[in-house]
User: Which sequence fits this backbone?
């Protein structure tokens, strides 16, 4: 620093920092890392906090037995069952699920089977005289339910409970394992295994000073190894001997009481013990308890679910879930004095600097953390950190200016000592590629270069972030919009996209795209080559439109810290993207991130600062992703109906009372559905889309919405379909629910046929001859009338053409002659051109009238051909690709009245004109089809800009089309969204149409 800097700044040497640098161990210890165990208890809806047993059903639901009832968890909500619902006892000790998805419940006094509606109870046979024990096991093999209770083994098959004769002398059975083709029984410290109808006796190999174990759990892992655990620890089967495995790692308390065993998807064994849980990976032991995020309570049971989560049932703290260690947290529970991490920086070697809201700066190094003590008290609120290429840490504070720290020396730069500083509130720090330091203030910006501060933005606006986007080009985010520093000049930076109206507060550059985080419009990706912008917001998968920070990982994914959770945006080569959400289900305790608080380290890991600690993302560790196990309907309701009348369906689903084979009257055509996928690792992350087969509508957009209503459904057969996907788009679940809206009897084919047949019979018996003559006379008169009308229409068309057409042509010719005869002035020229234009337009209009007057054009084929020709002429000299499909020569036999053909043509002329004028489409299609009962169905599609249908209905165009559709007794449906193109569908019955025989 030069002399001026010595005068303007303040040196603070804190020699105590030398001791800190040498001995960081005085800070809190974090060797016992806090792991993301997710706890669910009575506050979340669990029936009772003492969880005793776990099971997962075929749909993916987790069942939890407690001492206060039975709970079912679907990833979002708990459903509880107690004695009031039919449970025999609220104390549940064992659970299992059979192949039909029935839940078997070991309770006090017996065992029950629950099918979703009814509890069927089985009692212990009367000959058993031992007192009832709380310890039970239930296991199911094929169609047989095995039950260990009261020290005895029972089996239930075909609705009958039987006592199983166990080997060896009479004694208490302490554990069992039922398998296909055999069973394992532990009794009196001996394990028996049935093998081809004979029993093998397996004994424990123990030392002279060891107690004989009592087995509490027999478990076979994925590799086929048999493990036996109990009150003296863990043993494995080796050549018909049960021996203790050689393990290293965490020291385990002795004696080790093991209650349950499970194996995770990596092959590691997890043990539920009397104080926490134990994980065995190979021969290495790791213990989890309260010290690293779990609990010191006793754990009774463990289960690895279909997604790979490990669940643990605790005595007094509910259940815990472990989904992997991809996210870990450094927070107050590990000794960090302030959980509000406002800024993060790194020296790119071995140290991480954490700036907090109310406790200054902490250094995290080699698993230890300690305070970087400021020379003045109290420590300032840190708002920004930047570790520069020259080894200096720059510190921005909320109200005490800018600080630097190097070689154990602090230095302060603040107003009024530095008169050119706009304030002492620092909002952002950034080092560019030329190693210049950029400083954002609450009311301006400065650049530090060659030991001097230079004012860059003098406006009284907050400056939040900086980004180098080229040689000597720095993009500046302010609350008044984006600014660009180039060659010493600052100017407004305009993109002509949504970014110009957004409040940008952070950004990064990647592959010629600037990814901008806003406080109001989500994430904006601005392409500097095409000058276009991609917006990703709550409507596109984000859970919050407030973006605090952005970074990119080694795989090109964009990571953003938001006002609600962390998001990963994966962008494919074709520009499509997918948003993955990470929240509490993944162990994230601080859902709200902070500005200036993200950094990617050399090991590709990422640190995020949040309002509840520093979040560490480690990309190469395992993490269970949210995967839907299944998806099911939770309710089917009719508008205005509290329940659906049983006469409209065959039966009800046991679990959610969903009606099967639903057939609704045509007046009950307003129906709503609620659906839910089961995912135990974060159901809040699941996205849904739906469609209704039977309606001409596409799939909905992916969203978190899990309910939908349909109104005024026409009679017909329908299939309501739902799809669900998780974060990684794998193992998507789907459901299909068929139902029918019955066609009213008076509109059925059979009713019409019966009515016609009755009329014919009546005519035969009453006035057969009279009616026959009358019908012949009417047919003759009708034929004469039609022939006369055809002659009149033909003469009218000829006269109209001769009188009007020739006169219009004559006017046009005379106008051209007049142009050549007189000297044209601007006014006379303009008038003559208007005469020509109006004459041409009038002549063009008469063509439609002339065409419709000709009787030969009354058939359906010619009418549709007219629409196709009109579209072809309209788009002929444009860039629009127009296609008309479905025209069939057989349609010539259908004749339409002149008023019907006129209204039909005018509807599509209006629609095609709108496509050309407003849609900016590249492709326009019309598809014609003739449905059952002579219903003509025409669909017009374009891939243009789309529009807001609510606003468009205020205009005359759509109103006129609806009026004309009503004249046809048809249904006009227009579906359009901005940016999604437009679909117009017209369907009407060709009533009044004749068929040429």
Assistant:
């Amino acid at each position: 620093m030069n002399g001026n800097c010595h005068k303007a700044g303040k040196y603070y040497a804190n020699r105590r920092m030398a001791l800190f640098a040498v001995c960081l161990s005085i800070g809190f210890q974090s060797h016992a890392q806090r792991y993301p165990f997710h706890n669910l208890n009575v506050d979340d809806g669990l029936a009772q906090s003492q969880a005793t047993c776990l099971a997962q059903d075929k749909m993916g639901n987790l069942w939890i037995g407690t001492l206060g009832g039975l709970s079912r968890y679907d990833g979002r909500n708990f459903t509880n069952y107690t004695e009031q619902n039919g449970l025999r006892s609220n104390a549940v000790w064992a659970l299992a699920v059979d192949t039909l998805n029935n839940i078997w419940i070991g309770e006090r006094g017996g065992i029950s089977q629950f099918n979703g509606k009814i509890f069927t109870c089985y009692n212990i046979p009367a000959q058993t005289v031992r007192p009832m024990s709380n310890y039970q096991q239930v296991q199911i093999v094929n169609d047989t339910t095995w039950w260990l209770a009261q020290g005895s083994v029972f089996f239930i098959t075909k609705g009958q409970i039987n006592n199983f004769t166990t080997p060896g002398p009479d004694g208490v059975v302490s554990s069992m394992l039922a398998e296909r083709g055999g069973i394992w029984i532990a009794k009196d410290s001996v394990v028996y295994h049935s093998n081809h109808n004979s029993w093998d006796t397996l004994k424990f190999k123990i030392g002279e000073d060891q107690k004989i174990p009592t087995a509490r759990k027999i478990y076979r892992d994925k590799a086929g190894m048999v493990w036996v655990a109990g009150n003296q620890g863990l043993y494995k089967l080796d050549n018909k001997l049960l021996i203790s495995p050689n393990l290293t790692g965490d020291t385990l308390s002795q004696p080790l009481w093991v209650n349950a065993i499970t194996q995770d998807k990596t092959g590691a064994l997890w043990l539920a013990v009397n104080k926490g849980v134990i994980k065995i990976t190979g021969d290495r032991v790791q213990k989890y308890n309260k010290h690293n995020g779990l609990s010191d309570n006793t754990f009774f049971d463990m289960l690895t679910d279909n997604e790979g989560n490990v669940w643990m049932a605790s005595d007094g703290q509910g259940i815990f879930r472990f989904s992997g260690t991809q996210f870990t947290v450094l927070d107050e529970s590990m000794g960090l004095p302030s959980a509000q991490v406002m800024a993060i920086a790194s020296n790119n070697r071995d140290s991480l600097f954490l700036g907090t809201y109310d406790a200054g700066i902490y250094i995290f190094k080699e698993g230890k953390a300690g305070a970087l003590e400021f020379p003045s008290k109290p420590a300032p609120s840190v708002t920004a950190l930047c570790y520069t290429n020259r080894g200096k840490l720059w510190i921005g504070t909320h109200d005490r200016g800018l600080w630097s720290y190097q070689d154990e020396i602090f230095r302060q730069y603040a107003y009024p000592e530095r008169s050119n500083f706009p304030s002492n509130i620092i909002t952002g720090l950034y080092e560019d590629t030329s190693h210049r330091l950029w400083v954002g203030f609450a009311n301006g910006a400065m650049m530090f270069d060659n030991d001097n501060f230079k004012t860059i933005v003098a406006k009284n606006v907050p400056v939040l972030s900086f980004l180098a986007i080229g040689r000597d080009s720095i993009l500046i985010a302010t609350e008044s919009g984006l600014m660009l520093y180039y060659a010493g000049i600052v100017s407004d930076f305009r993109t002509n996209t949504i970014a110009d109206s957004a409040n940008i507060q952070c950004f990064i550059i990647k592959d010629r795209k600037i990814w901008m985080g806003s406080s109001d419009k989500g994430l904006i990706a601005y392409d500097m080559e095409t000058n276009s912008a991609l917006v990703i917001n709550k409507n596109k998968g984000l859970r919050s439109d407030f973006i605090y920070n952005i970074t990119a990982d080694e795989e090109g994914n964009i990571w953003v810290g938001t006002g609600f959770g962390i998001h990963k945006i994966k962008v494919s080569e074709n520009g499509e993207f997918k948003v993955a959400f990470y929240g509490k289900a993944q162990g994230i305790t601080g859902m709200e991130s902070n500005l200036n608080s993200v950094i990617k380290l050399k090991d590709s890991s990422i640190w995020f600062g949040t309002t509840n600690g520093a979040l560490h993302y480690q990309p190469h560790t395992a993490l269970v992703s949210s995967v839907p196990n299944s998806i099911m309907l939770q309710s089917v309701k009719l508008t205005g109906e509290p329940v659906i009348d049983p006469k409209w369906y065959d039966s009800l689903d046991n679990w959610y009372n969903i009606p099967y084979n639903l057939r609704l009257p045509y007046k009950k055509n307003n129906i709503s559905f609620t659906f839910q996928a089961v995912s135990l690792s974060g159901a809040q992350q699941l996205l849904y889309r739906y469609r209704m087969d039977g309606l001409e509508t596409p799939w909905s957009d992916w969203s978190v919405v899990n309910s939908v209503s349909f109104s005024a459904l026409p009679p017909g057969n329908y299939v309501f379909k739902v799809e669900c996907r998780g974060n990684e788009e794998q193992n998507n679940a789907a459901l299909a629910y068929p139902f029918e809206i019955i066609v009213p009897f008076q509109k059925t084919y059979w009713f019409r046929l019966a009515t016609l047949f009755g009329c014919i019979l009546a005519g035969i018996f009453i006035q057969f001859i009279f009616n026959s003559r009358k019908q012949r006379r009417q047919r003759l008169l009708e034929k004469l009338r039609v022939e006369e009308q055809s002659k009149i229409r033909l003469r009218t068309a000829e006269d109209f053409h001769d009188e009007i057409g020739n006169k219009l042509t004559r006017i046009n010719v005379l106008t051209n002659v007049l142009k050549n005869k007189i000297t044209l002035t601007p006014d006379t020229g303009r008038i003559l051109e208007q005469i020509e234009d109006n004459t041409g337009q009038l002549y063009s209009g008469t063509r439609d009238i002339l065409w419709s007057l000709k009787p030969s054009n009354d058939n359906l084929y010619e009418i549709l051909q007219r629409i196709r020709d009109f579209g072809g002429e309209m788009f002929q000299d444009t860039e629009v690709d127009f296609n008309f499909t479905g025209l069939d020569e057989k349609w010539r036999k259908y004749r339409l009245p002149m008023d019907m053909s006129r209204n039909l043509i005018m509807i599509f002329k209006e629609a095609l004109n709108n496509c050309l004028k407003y849609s900016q489409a590249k492709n326009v299609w019309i598809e014609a089809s003739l449905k059952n009962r002579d219903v003509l169905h025409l669909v017009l599609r374009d891939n243009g800009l789309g529009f807001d249908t609510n606003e468009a209905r205020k205009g005359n165009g759509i109103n006129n089309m609806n009026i004309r559709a009503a004249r046809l007794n048809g249904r006009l449906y227009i579906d359009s969204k901005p940016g999604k193109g437009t679909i117009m569908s017209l369907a009407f019955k060709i009533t009044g149409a004749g068929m040429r025989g």
The helical segments are 3-8, 16-22, 749-821, 826-853, 860-874, 898-919, 949-952, 956-967.
